[in-house]
Amino acid sequence: MTDVAGQADEESDGDRRRFAQYHFAVNNILHIYNRMKKLSLFVISLVICMVGLAQYRPAKENLNARKQFQNNKFGIFIHWGIYSMLGDGEWVMNNKHINHEEYTHLADGFCPSKFNADEWVKAFKAAGARYITFTTRHHDGFSMFTTAESNYNIVDGTPYGKDVVKALAEACRKHDIGLHLYYSHLDWQRLDYPLGRTGLKLGRPTDRQDWESYFSFMNRQLTELLTNYGKIDCIWFDGWWDHDQDPSFDWHLPEQYALIHKLQPACLIGNNHHGAVNQGEDIQMFEQDLPGQNTYGLQGDASISELPLETCLTMNGDWGYSITDKKYKSTEKLIQMLVGAAGRNANLLLNVGPRPDGQIPVEALERLKGIGEWMKVNGETIYDTRGGMVAPRDWGVTTQKGDTLYVHILNLADKALFLSVAAKSVAKARMFADKKPVGVVKANDGVLLQLPAVPTGVDTIVEVQLK
Ligand code: GLC
Predict the structure, then answer these.
(1) Is 244 in the pocket of ligand 1 (CB under 6 A)?
(2) Ligand 1 pocket check for 77: Cβ under 6 Å
(3) Which of 251, 258, 327, 446 is the most core-located residue (most Cβ within 10 A)?
(4) pTM, whole model, 2 decimals?
(5) d(CA 460, ligand 1 centre) in Å
């Protein structure tokens, strides 16, 4: 028994030892596992942080494109789509609560018999514009280009059957003018679009919303736009604000921007979100107001960034064709907006809303012609310049190219103009128009330019040579 008992004791000692060893090993494994778990969690969060904080580094060609964009100074915005047929602006579907299915029948009748991409681009170029921005797909969701993503497009869905983006891309290449593409984030037609604050009265079912599906649709379309039409100089986003009342809504912009920059690194990205610029954006955009102004109330708290700037502006009060809106700004006013933009280091993107037949309204053509005539004579003081060393004033603005400061007097009732530039840095000054000398008198903290007469006309330009 004893033996048996002794044996039993030895066995239980051995068991205890084995158990203790086993316990020790398990503890060690658990400890290592926990350490590993903490470490991997740490590594994962580190990676997430790094991705989140990763600074967007624009490619060299992108930085060059930004300079080119700033040199260009003047572009033409074109709002044209099946909405043009209703002659009531591009928001007509939303504003008139047009049923989403009924609206699609507009496409069945869209046949712009007078559309001629070459004529358009020639008129824009003659106006002095160096790029166009075309609405490839506006909020109504209709694609003005051929797309494998939906039949709701100009090639498959209209009797016209031709790709106007292709025609415009060819005309732009032929006439050496840049091509920018407007693309709406917001969509009033697709059922997978996650509804925001607009387009809620169009009879759409609300149970088919699917962000993943909509996001990949947009990215596939953007891929088409950036692969099928040659060099695209800018993607111009709009509609972000449809979800601005839901701070948790995530448009996944970094992923979309990265896709664009991967497909065409030089392609500039701008987003008309009216707010401060986001990572991945290459230009900052302003709507209806010059940077620093906010008469329209759209600028929110957007501070002016270091990025190239652009202000878009309607010629009358509408973007899309309006059959009743004849409140066109005068040619003089439009020239002053262009000069005012340049003096604020910004480009002007001036809008035209072609008619459904494809013709540009005559009022717009007249103004384009007038701007073109002015630019032919004065373009030297606008193109390739940057906002001048004297900030915008009530009397006007300055632009600058190297040592030449162009003083644009837009509004002055006196024969002399005080310029806050140290006298010792001014070599001489002359009228830009007839090169007649302008007296420069030293004054406190600046100089007084003695003009030959009280300035009249759209823009009196003095060319100041700096030392
Ligand atoms: C606004 C409008 C849109 C227009 C755009 C142009 O965002 O919603 O219709 O295309 O401005 O800047």
Answers:
(1) no
(2) no
(3) 251
(4) 0.89
(5) 33
